[in-house]
Design goal:
alpha/beta, eleven-stranded mixed beta sheet, 12 helices, 14 strands, binds zinc ion
């Protein structure tokens, strides 16, 4: 029997992977089996379907957010995680009541608008003023003092589409600080083209900020189609007057919870792989792509990575709170776990939708590169390339971890279409392709299993 099973596992292995100094033959066989299991598993789909249907939107501080926390605790327990716990995180709470906008003259028509997070309300009847258009935040910043006096500033910057989402960073500047700069130029309101690559008529929300000492003005975004229309109207050369009506409220400090589930390791239980996503979402859609998918992918991957019995090191799934309001859960996690961050052997966050993973990139000590190459090799059959630069930054919730030089990884999803739906009412379950979701789970499961079982632990730079 022993001979037969050895023969069988060698047979399985030969078709898949050569020998390694970092993993036993049995472990490499396990990896192949976990991968195949993940590619036929509906676990992640069932999770994201349950989260987006039974809980729905999960904006920090809302009843939906609270329900999301309870959902995650219950699911971790039901899935058999060894340890399940929550850790509090506070954040500035904000809620949206209503929003609308219209062109008043020269040709009356509705505009599809959304308030940006943290925006103040307008008076009940809205604000009405002439539009002054700028193409970029830079252009607004270099405009003369009082250039926008009494007007509504409109920034018409179009983000570019790319697989790696590189258009997002530059576009987000106008979302984050646009209302501040507009107010400094004398504006009474601020509206921007959505941070979006879409052709539909949904407006994209997202975080925005005010600055102490600068008058707060309403901060909002219109859909791409409406931005095109407003641009054409302004280009006619006659004054264009619009009305913006936003009712929203800042509510002081809110509290939510990071939800953490762990499969305890058999040999080095303190050392752990950290994977996860963020549990909160914006309120407009059901947070399927952002970030129900990341939650489901990493929960399912941990379960599958654990399906061959205990891994040497622990596998920890962290579902971060209040990411959308400014990484509040991640900041709280780092603060509460500062002494234990040195025990992280590999970290990756899934927060870029649900399209296929096309590459893995590390950011680790040179001593760990052979292990990384083995992990990448095991992912090759999933059409995952190895980016060898070793400069990965990890997902947004890993930003507060950076000063601690943890071994960070990017499992890069194809983000070509992500910004069509991101932060809109259209971020719903039907945008997730079950087959692509399974490829994500397989990739994360390979990652978690191998990082948890490598002969020598992966160290950060
Ligand atoms: Zn996200």
């Amino acid at each position: 029997m022993v001979l037969l099973s050895t023969f069988l596992s060698v047979l399985t292995l030969n078709s898949a992977q050569a020998k390694s100094d970092n993993f036993s033959t049995q472990q490499l066989t396990d990896v192949e089996q976990i991968k195949q299991q993940a590619l036929t598993s509906d676990l992640a789909w069932d999770l994201v379907e349950s989260l987006t249907t039974e809980v729905g939107p999960r904006m920090p501080g809302t009843p939906g957010d609270k329900a999301g926390v309870a959902w995650a605790v219950a699911k971790f327990n039901a899935m058999g995680f060894d340890k399940v716990w929550t850790e509090p995180a506070t954040f500035p709470k904000w809620i949206r009541y209503s929003e609308s906008a219209a062109v008043i003259s020269p040709s009356p028509q509705k505009l599809h608008i959304t308030a940006l997070g943290n925006s103040i309300s307008t008076p009940k009847e809205g604000i009405q003023a002439e539009v002054i258009e700028f193409q970029t935040l830079d252009e607004l910043e270099s405009a003369p003092e009082n250039a926008a006096k009494g007007k509504i500033v409109f920034i018409n910057y179009q983000m570019n589409r790319d697989r790696d989402g590189n258009g997002y960073g530059p576009a987000v500047q106008a979302r984050s600080r646009g209302a501040v700069v507009a107010a400094q130029k004398g504006a009474v309101g601020y509206v921007m083209r959505s941070v979006s690559t879409a052709h539909h008529r949904f407006a994209h929300t997202g975080g925005s900020h005010y600055k102490e000492g600068v008058t707060k003005i309403v901060s909002s975004a219109i859909s791409n189609a409406d931005a095109d229309q407003l641009h054409r109207l302004v280009a006619l050369g006659e004054p264009v007057t619009i009305n913006i009506n936003v009712q929203a409220q800042s509510m002081g400090e809110g509290t939510s919870y990071n939800v953490i589930g762990e499969f305890t390791g058999s040999e080095f239980s303190q050392e752990h792989v950290l994977i996860g996503g963020h549990l909160d979402s914006w309120d407009l859609g059901t947070g399927a792509l952002d970030d129900g998918a990341g939650v489901a992918i990493t929960m399912a991957a941990a379960k599958l990575a654990h399906s061959k019995g205990k891994t040497k090191r622990s596998i920890r799934v962290v579902l971060f709170a209040a990411e959308e309001f400014g990484l509040w859960g991640a900041k709280a996690y780092v603060k509460a776990n500062e002494k234990n961050l040195k025990h992280i052997v590999a970290a990756a966050e899934s927060d870029f939708g649900a399209d296929k993973i096309w590459a893995i990139e590390s950011n680790v000590d040179a001593s760990a590169l052979p292990v990384v190459r083995d992990i990448a090799k095991a992912m090759a059959s999933l059409n995952v390339e190895h980016i060898g630069k070793n400069t990965a930054r990890g997902g947004p919730d890993l930003i507060p971890f950076r000063p601690f030089n943890i071994p960070a990884f990017r499992l890069a999803q194809d983000g070509t279409d992500y910004f069509n739906y991101h932060h809109t009412a259209d971020d719903t379950l039907d945008k997730i392709d079950p087959e692509k979701l399974r490829q994500n789970v397989a990739t994360y499961a390979v990652f978690a299993y191998m990082a948890a079982n490598a002969k020598t632990r992966i160290l950060g730079k």
